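Progress against Task 2.4 (sequence-to-structure conversion) is shown through the following example record, which the project officer requested during the mid-term review.
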Amino acid sequence: MTTIDVGQFFHGGRMRWGTEGRCADCPNGWCDEDSGPVAPEHIRQALLRAHGPALLRLSGDAPSLVPVLQALRDARDLSLAEARAQATRLAADGLLGTLVEMEVLALFLRGRGVEVTVAPASTA
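Structure tokens generated for the chain above:
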């Protein structure tokens, strides 16, 4: 049987993720780490299953669209159309993702003067 642990974190201005695995019946193990604007889907899904989603919401009146688009594009390397779609969701019901993903987006948004909150989706 193989056990695999996954995680996400923010370091050096980038979102990073890692996996560690070990074999229960042998001394073999491994550790992999990478970074980028979005974690691989299998890591995201494992974290969402284990911890549930976090919700990123605007905490005040909708600001100008420009700083929101700039922050989203900077954080995630999005096209303008993709950033507009995410900005629309953020202004409506908020964005869902892993806690680290939403906190990273919050950092970029706050850096552009956009007030946001992050909370577990079940209590938001």
